[in-house]
Amino acid sequence: SLVVLFGATAGAYGAKLGSDERELILLVWQVVDLHSKKVGTLHKSLVKADNLELSDQCREVSGLTPEGLGKAEPLDRVLQQFSQLVSSDLKVLGRSSYTLCSDGQLLIRQVLHPETSKKNFLLSDCFYSFYDLRKEFHTCYPSSAAVKDQTIKTMAEYLGLGIDEAEEDFGVWQVKTMVAIIFSMLSEGCNHVFTEPETVKYKYETGPWIKTSFGFYFLLFLCSSKSETVDSETVIRARGLPWQSSDQDIARFFKGLNIAKGGVALCLNSQGRRNGEALVRFVNSEQRDLALERHKHHMGSRYIEVYKATGEEFLKIAGGTSNEVAQFLSKENQVIIRMRGLPFTATQEDVLGFLGTECPVTGGKEGLLFVKYPDGRPTGDAFVLFSCEEYAQNALKKHKEILGKRYIELFRSTAAEVQQVVLNRYMSTPLIPTLPTPIIPVIPSPYTIATGSIRDCVRLRGLPYTAGIDDILEFMGDATGDIKPHGVHMVLNQQGRPSGDAFIQMKSADKAFMVAQKCHKKMMKDRYVEVFQCSGEEMNFVLMGGTLNRSGLSPPPCKLPCLSPPAYAAFQTAAVIPAEAAALYQPQALLPTTRTPQASAAAPPTVTYYPAQAAQLYMNYTAYYPSPPVSPTTVGYIAAPPGAVAAAATATHTPILPQPGALVRMQGLPYNTGMKEILSFFQGYQYAPDDYNGLIQLSDQARSVLQAPKEWVCL
Q: What superfamily does domain 457-544 belong to in CATH?
């Protein structure tokens, strides 16, 4: 038996069903006995959505109103009624089993599964197997239109079936027409047999993905994975993921679509930490195309961007490994947990003792993999295998418990992450291409940022990530002429990508006010941009890692100069990229895919963005990310261009610290440490306010924190 099913949401209809995340508001179904060609009662049920607002298209097509939906039952109750009524109809027809049949894949894959997953209730088994009437119709009638172009109307017209939409309610005529189409396919001329239903995977299968060759299964990383190929039509890149999301969270986001085994590869940065992106490989191109329709759907409160990716990118993340990793991952269907912050002297026995008997490790010591540097020194990270979800959950409960004198962080992990983290220690370049480490100038720049309290600047927030300097100038319109020379400042995040923020220095406070009034919430491409008036001091704080919100200024977490042995010059507050370095940041550097350029001794002239000699791109040096699983990284230092070094050697500078040894460097700070915690740590020691105030430029708010009381700090 078949249960012919039709549904509608409060938003898009037809080919875009489910693409806008709107909730289900209508279900219509009818049981069909394929042997006796009898039908059961036709049922129509409205569904009460959490958001009763209907799109114009929905109102026009369905004729439904929010008032009518407000009296309906919620989705979980409707699905219970569905199961009960179908069972009753089957008994009347003398049948016991059935399979769903829908008009295409969208209702099952893009509406029911995602919505029930978000609302945290389970669908019955019948929703994991269904017939796609469009595919079955094309199989029965090969000369008909392509599957993607089929609709209920086109199938009915092909068969010469009459449709009178005016006489039937919305949803009712669709189900009746689908039943008529099925009976035509069962007629003596066709004798169509429904044999191969579409399936939805119950859960995501973890582990290294596998390939079939000559009837045998081989683990990809044991088969020269770098030389293998992956169909680029099956891979997507998800961007904007929460830092703590696991492969299971990503699989849940794509609930209803079939991801290949081990097909979720979390991307890591050069430090081995997750960068908020993942590559996902689906079982076929049809599933991939459906995944692309979930662009900007939400995972919690964050929207996720979904783009096409290539098989090469997926193999680069999920394909490479070493014999050490191959042996560790040889056991399939294991849950992987990553441990971070282990004492460098920790042994396998210490880790097993820390985990205890309530979460036994698979294979004992063989289920542990310590991550080490190329010279053999431990990194403080380790991966652990557990045979079931229960043991893994018990292990995660030990998050931030103490081993030795350190607290240990535990996170879910994946096979791809194991491969990346371990393999990355052997590589001279990171697995994920990023922009070069920001260059800290060692010489004063001729183009510095004003730090006064005059509100002659504007902040642009919510820019499209692909927006460049030219887009901003076009957005500003006539106000472009009021921008100071070299006054457009793009803010980049820790990965070297645009953060969505920019600052613009105007010629006067009045000009800044007029721009903020005129351009606030004006559209740039497909996004509206917020424009706020601010001062140079506020702009400077944000560019150096602080935050600017309604509560005022929050100074950067690491505003003090960072000194690393043997000797690094402290950077100025107005950290402008030198002219020799500006050429590294070409416009294409603002695009999602970046390359690591090589600095040369003879640097080309500075590229002109606006309006004359230099482009200014600011890295948010001290921006840090919450744990888990991305912890803050220290500011990276690389050698300045030779020209800058030579100029620094001949330049005369006023000593920042007149007394040798007046600065101390602290290592091993907790990742969430703020300025007050550091000052409190040095309670009882004094400092010279005059010397300290000359070290960096401070706002009145930050200076008051540092000066009262004096005994907090000794620097």
A: RRM (RNA recognition motif) domain (3.30.70.330)
